[in-house]
Specification:
The chain is α+β, with helices and mostly antiparallel strands. It folds into 3 domains: 133 residues, no CATH class; 115 residues, no CATH class; 168 residues, no CATH class. The chain is 46% helix and 12% strand. It has 16 helices and 12 strands.
Length: 505
């Protein structure tokens, strides 16, 4: 049956004849062996047949059993206890007086009913009535709250998001217990009907941000959404940029902190990653435990991560550029050491660097995709064996192995995985240009990269803020982390009170 015919059936209202309704549902949900149909009979002044439909695995049978048993035994008492009760109002009476301790509602069209049972609720149809009862019975196996795998901390909360959107919003709401915390929900995906929630704090969120997010989300036209990565790619600024202008995180505390700063978060059902917007470049070097440790320690490690980011981006390019074109800039003793190591290497230094970079990326990707215990062993042993064998075979020089190893370790120091991937991606074109054009090529490529970063915006916010444009007050929580009693909300985001901490003076 074609989709036009299905859509027409979905738009029709329920009929009073039970068999007609069941036949139409079976036509719409054709070839679904997990559709469970439980028939029952109510005995009032006459016998009323009924059926309960739900999807096996999406609904909790205990809830359904309890509900059916309750109104089957209580329904005969309706006539005795309420002499003015009209049997024409039976579905509404069941909802209001019998299942009052369970969440339920009445629907009138097949679309509403089918959508509900596909989401995990159960549908109760009674013969002779065109109002259908929907019983909240959602319940399926899901992953429990665990420590995030991509954003581990030394000090701080150990809980991370799961694939259940309501569990995720509850984790954040538990941390932000204010009546101003708000959630706006919508569905995206013509076929998957994926639930999306936008979280923000009224009076604190940046003016116009929620309207802009809603506008972009409503323009998304997809058959299905499997993860928040789909949404991130479709609503982000700078679609062709290697930089990430929306931050994804598994940490509820990070989302709560962002909301308190005036940002917004987008939750996507079936995804443990929540999107935070707007996002800036300096968040690449910020980690959650910066705020849970002493401010001097937090500042120190931010500077270490900034150095690691710079090393990861430019170290191979600088090495190739200096060895290939500008040997006079290298100290004589070091130049002789490098030359002695390269004496037996048959490749130009650019080819040597590309081979090592590609080998390192292969080892990293292989270790990531393999089973966890094996992957770690492969990454460590593979790096040691391949590096040592390549040097002994004269394919690469010892100094090149050191450069690539330092670069790889530096990339692991960037706390945001998406940011780390952006830097790794940019390293290759910068390396090729530096190895072919020398200092001129490196300077030109780096300048173009800087100009591109300056042109980016994240939901109206400059990507390099608060450095560009420079905001003196916001420097207290960008590269440096000042004490809590000096911090205020970012001036470009704060709409209400700007203090993060009560006055400690």
């Amino acid at each position: 049956m074609n989709q036009e015919r299905i859509e027409k059936l979905l738009s029709e209202p329920f009929k009073k004849k039970l068999s007609s309704n069941v036949n139409q549902i079976e036509t719409i949900l054709k070839e679904n062996d997990d559709l469970v149909k439980r028939e029952f009979t109510l005995r009032l002044h006459r016998q009323i047949d009924g059926i309960c439909l739900y999807i096996d695995g999406l609904s909790t049978t205990d809830t359904i059993d309890s509900a059916i048993e309750t109104f089957m035994y209580k329904a005969p008492e309706i006539m005795k206890e309420h002499p003015f009760f009209s049997v024409n109002q039976l579905p509404n009476y069941i909802k209001s007086h019998i299942l009052y301790n369970q969440t339920s509602n009445l629907v009138s069209t097949f679309r509403e009913g089918i959508t509900s049972i596909l989401a995990g609720d159960s549908m109760i149809i009674l013969d002779g009535y065109d109002d259908v009862l929907i019983l909240a019975s959602r319940g399926w196996n899901e992953r429990s709250v665990e420590e995030p795998q991509t954003e581990q901390v030394v000090r701080g909360p150990r809980e991370g998001f799961t694939e259940n959107i309501r569990s995720n919003t509850a984790l954040v709401r538990r941390k932000v217990q204010t009546p101003y915390f708000s959630l706006k929900s919508l569905e995206i995906g013509k076929k998957t009907k994926t639930s999306i929630s936008i979280a923000y704090i009224r009076g604190t969120v940046k003016e116009g941000l929620i309207e802009e997010i809603q506008s972009r989300l409503k323009k998304v036209k997809l058959d299905g959404v499997m993860d928040s990565g789909y949404i991130e790619e479709l609503i982000a600024d700078g679609r062709y940029s290697p930089f990430t202008t929306i931050q994804g995180t598994e940490r509820p505390d990070k989302v709560a902190s962002a909301l308190l700063e005036g940002k917004a978060a987008v939750f996507v059902d079936n995804s443990p990653f929540v999107l935070i917007m707007p996002s800036t470049f300096w968040e690449y070097i910020q980690a959650s435990d910066d705020y849970y440790s002493n401010y001097m320690l937090g500042t120190f490690y931010r500077l270490v991560r900034l150095g690691a980011l710079i090393i990861s981006l430019v170290l191979p390019s600088l090495y190739v550029m200096l060895v290939s074109f500008h040997q006079e800039m290298i100290p004589t003793t070091l130049a002789l050491t490098i030359a002695s190591g390269r004496e037996v290497v048959p490749f130009p230094v650019l080819v040597e660097a590309l081979l090592m970079e590609l080998a390192f990326e292969l080892i990293r990707e292989g270790g990531l995709r393999m089973p966890k215990p094996i992957g770690q062993a492969v990454s460590i042993v593979g790096s040691l064996i391949i590096g040592q064998a390549a040097v002994q075979a004269g394919v690469v020089s010892p100094f090149m192995v050191i450069v690539i190893a330092i670069t790889g370790i530096a990339s692991f120091s960037i706390p945001n995985y998406a940011a780390s991937f952006s830097i790794r991606l940019l390293r290759f074109p910068l390396l090729i240009i530096s190895g072919t054009l020398g200092l001129l090529g490196f300077a030109a490529a780096f300048t173009l990269l800087l100009v591109h970063a300056l042109s980016l915006r994240s939901f109206g916010e400059p990507f390099l803020s608060p450095m560009v444009p420079f905001r003196a007050n916001d420097q207290k929580d960008s590269i440096l982390r000042f004490p809590w009693w000096t911090l205020k909300r970012p001036a470009h985001l704060a709409e209400g009170e700007d203090n993060r901490e009560n006055d400690q003076s």
